[in-house]
Design brief:
Blueprint: H1 16-37, H2 41-58, H3 63-81, H4 85-119
Helix pairs in contact: 1-2, 2-4, 3-4
């Protein structure tokens, strides 16, 4: 027996395409939040590596990670100019993590592209 819900109780789930477009941004936010809220560098690094694995698996554009690193480096300059050296050092570490996983993601994309060229 099917139960029919009234229209005001029905939940509309987001479209799959919308989720695919927003997920790279959500992963970046999760990485930054984990870096800010978790004290263990090993756990934070593992969160960043999981984000890299998701980027590689879902074939998201890894240039976004490098772009985030560049944005954070710009934020470091602003923080240093404002005399917030402690926060600038923290943000610089985050930028380094994003740069590392971004370059690794680009390398994975390069290897994937080479593999497809060899098959053709």
């Amino acid at each position: 027996m099917k139960i029919k819900l009234p229209p005001w109780l029905r939940i509309k789930l987001p479209k799959q395409k919308f989720i695919e477009e927003v997920m790279p941004f959500i992963l970046v936010i999760i990485c930054v939040a984990s870096a800010k809220l978790i004290d263990s560098e090993a756990i934070v690094l593992s969160v960043f590596l999981v984000a890299l694995a998701i980027y590689a698996w879902r074939k998201y554009d890894s240039r976004m990670l490098v772009g985030t690193a560049l944005f954070l480096l710009g934020a470091c300059a602003v923080l240093l100019a404002g005399g917030k050296e402690f926060y600038a050092n923290e943000v610089a570490i985050w930028a380094y993590y994003f740069l590392v996983i971004g370059v690794l993601g680009l390398f994975i994309e390069y290897l994937r592209e080479k593999k497809h060229e060899n098959e053709d």
